[in-house]
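ENCODED BACKBONE
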Amino acid sequence: MAVFMEKHRKKIFWVLVVAAFASIFVYNFLTPYMSDDYFYKIEVRQAKSLFDLFRQQYREYLSNSGRVIGQFNIRLSLVFSKQIFNVVNSVMFTGLTLLIYANVRRKKKYDVLALLLVITFLWKFTVDFGQTMLWICGSCNYLWGSVIILGYVTFFRRLLSRAERIKHPVLAAAGTFFFGIAAGWCNENTSGGGLLLVLLFGANFWWDRKREGKKAFYPFMGAAALGMCCGILGMILAPGVRNRSQVMREDEYTGFVGLLSKIYKISMTVRDLFFVLFVMIAIVLVALAVQKQLCTWSQIRRNETVLFTVTGIATCYALAIAPTTMDRAFFGAGVFLFIACIQGIMDAAREERILRIAKYSLVSVLCLWFAFNYLDNLVNLARIYREEKERITMLVEEKADPDGTGIVVLPKLRQEFQNPYSNMHDSDLEEDKDFWINLFYEVYYDVGNITAIPREEWEELYGEGAE
């Protein structure tokens, strides 16, 4: 078996990449529009041109959010068919998979085990998968934003590795500057984490080259940090950010006490979201120390497990200055911690036989978990998709009925179908006709008032067997 795997490693690697795309595409297909998607769809269909979309985004920049890139991607996605988004979003997921893989160093070419670790980590440990990977509004801000940010970090690391061979330094500096603006303008704390990585890798490069008596600074290094700073400032200084902060501030404490309160809440959230990851990171750091891979300051400051762990922690606690914090805001921190953990596993298992066995065992267990979990939730997503299509059909028929009462009663989604890969239950229709999502449906489908009741009650009153 091992001989076969080694002989066909490249083919197996690309088969797994295609499988990663196919697996997320199916979930994308079974994810309908939900929550704020309807709000933006209502706005987008009023736009007559690309310029109108830019104007809508500018108004949002002034009133609600500084995330120009993510929010504009939402509008652009909603212009086209959901099937186009399904393909693009699946490409983004596959791109994030390959970028995480690319940032894990000291592995074999076409390393199948490393790729399997990346894929299974994404499915197992991603924060709020349904909101950050499948929901259009969440994906454009978190998944797509992380692809841009991690793509930039990967690009910067690539330039550092071949700094002496750059033929057009001015073009390289210009490219890193404008790419840096885009990466900095994606997400407040994740972009900040990307900037920290650029600074850490740049500082290590400068220090090592200085000690060797070689040229230690190149124009693209300064342009990279400057570009990201410009992007971050453009995002956090948006007028809409100030407006949103005033509306959404949730803490009853202010000043230093308020900061301590936020740090405590973030610490508890980090524990709930990433405890298993931190346990694995702690184990591999101990193993690396025992193997004398972390004995000197030089080894510590260069070690990617250390650098990405520090960045992941910093990305989490940067949220202490945010007015309100949802779990999905920790998505980018999770990506950095995935790299830290997988890099540590690959490094620690290179020499010790028992650790290699542990690595193979971990991959096997995660793959087994993925197979059962994927199938179980595939069925749940299909059930939710079917019920949502039924409800939309009812709305369309109600709109076409000239003798309708003007009040549409719809069934709520069955609670037993709720799962971590769908956000539908968290934004389901309610009995209150003035509930925010009910209003979005009413406006988008151009019907009267909408109310929703539990499925069992609806079946009794309006189902086929109802009198």
Remarks:
- The mean pLDDT is 91.
